[in-house]
Amino acid sequence: MATVLLPLLALTTTTLAMTCPNRCMCQSLSPSFTILCTKTGLLFVPGALDRRTAELRLMDNFITTLRRKDFANMTNLIHLTLSRNTISHIMPYAFADLRGLHALHLDSNRLTTIHQEHFKGLVNLRHLILSNNQLSSISPGSLDDFIETIEDLDLSYNNLVQVPWATIAKLSNVNTISLDHNLIEAVPEGIFSNLHKLARLDMTSNKLKKIPPDPLFSRIPVYTKPKGSPLTSLVLSFGGNPLHCNCELVWLRRLTREDDLETCASPPELMGKYFWSIKEEEFICEPPMITHRTPKLTATEGQSVALKCKAVGDPDPYVRWIAPDGKLVSNTSRTVSYDNGTLDILLASLGDEGTFTCIASNAAGESTAPVELLVSPYPTLANSSGCDKDTESGPSDILIPAKSSVPNETKAQQDKGVTVTELTSSSALIQWPSQHHLPGMRMYQIQYNSSSDDILVYRMLPAASASFSLRDLAPGRAYDLCVLALYADASTALPATRRLGCASFTTATPARPCPPRPPHVPGATVILAIGGVIVASVLVFIVLLLLKYKVYGSRAKAKGPRVANGCSQTNGTNGTTNGTNGGTNGTNMDLTKREEGRPDGDPPTQTPLEAMP
Fold first, then answer.
1. How far apart are CA 512 and CA 29, in angstroms?
2. What is the pTM of this model?
3. Going by C-beta distance under 8 Å and a sequence separation of 6 or more, which residues neighbour residue 587?
4. Label partner for 200 (CA 20 to 30 A): which of 81, 295, 371, 510?
5. DSSP output for 360-425
6. pLDDT value at 454 more than 70
7. What's the mean pLDDT when you consider all of the chain?
């Protein structure tokens, strides 16, 4: 029996033996297998890790990337420490097999972003330490796998401006949240209301100007003089923030704490003062005061109009608008309300006419001011016949002359299908996609103006249009143009608008005529001119001679032809001339008759042709 048990014992000892990577220290006491690889110069997670390891410490090395295979099948791992490395990249699902992990230390690395798949699989994680990294963003879904188990979340000493507050509000078992030394500017109200187990919240050294009241903060320790034990266990640290000490922080001042060193950064009269030494009545707010508004505006139906109302106060007031029908104006496809107090009505209708009310409110009160809007009907929209008429071209598309010039350049920037083609110094062809599929389509509106003009120009076009030629534009001007589709909203039966796109273009600058050059007569030109004069003179002389010769010849023919001899030349043949078929009788008779007309004593006259042999 002993001979049988000894081999079995040796086999069991070999099975339980732990594989230890080079330069690492290992403890193989089952079930707490521990591997310690500290300051060993590791560039990657060792590949020869025992998959039964319960604790793995790899801090103070040079690991840069966590790969998917590094922790594969390590389902027994409970504690993983990767602090003080140079980790900048985590492969997706690198921790997917660590279902039993309770603590993950990634502090003092070079992480910049936490994506949604980085922490997938950590369903039992309780401690997540990400401090001293370079984090600027954390995906809202990256903490979902351990949202009900996490107890300690440390995001301190990073570059966070936004935190996944919606996820933090669901951490029902969290005890400590460290958000100190970041760039957080605001905390949403009510975020900590359901965190009943929260014992410490550290918001030190951020950019918070105020901290909103929360039911959770009623458990902040309250001390009496002499100091006694805290009544509750919640500790809130918010020193090192540029607190604006006004009436919004009165709730915090009433806690009468004496253990922190918070100071005020504003207003000027409280700057630098110790927060808890300021009397409660000094935390004051200023009610809003409306400083600028346009009391009366006029618009044409179908045009856009902007109602403006500016207010000041402490804290900064929130501006709202009440329509003439008494309803709060909300953001729709036709109206847009901005935080600066501007209300844009993108497409004015006759129903908008009336008095709008601007309401500016803050913690100290509210202030109101009326703004009257007059809307005049547009002829095309007021046409009861329902027929669309073609827009007639006016003499000019620019209502007022440009007041300044822009550089001579020709460019066209298109947006969403609106194109500018056939661009010249005075015209441009605007094209846009047809909107026949849009129900209740009525017409198109073109809005444009020059960079040097103050008035916006409108063009209303029939629904069948898909292009329009702008003519008589000013040369060398930059124009901004938008095309809108006007249709009847089926839900409200009111006119609505949809922007099809915008474009910017610059008309061409016509070329300036060159100034005349001063006369320049080179020496060769003088020589050619003299030669030309000589040639012209010779030609004139020849022409005169020809004319004189022609006149003399015509006079000679008028006197009649004369011959010196009436006998024709023969070759000795009887009555036959050389080269002729006929005899000489007829010729002699003709010459005799011509001789009879000449008086006696006159010499015979020969014309140049008769004198030729």
1. 95
2. 0.55
3. 568, 577
4. 81
5. EEETTEEEEEEEEEEEEPPHHHH-TT----PPPP-S-S-SS--SS---S---EE-BTTBEEES--S
6. no
7. 76
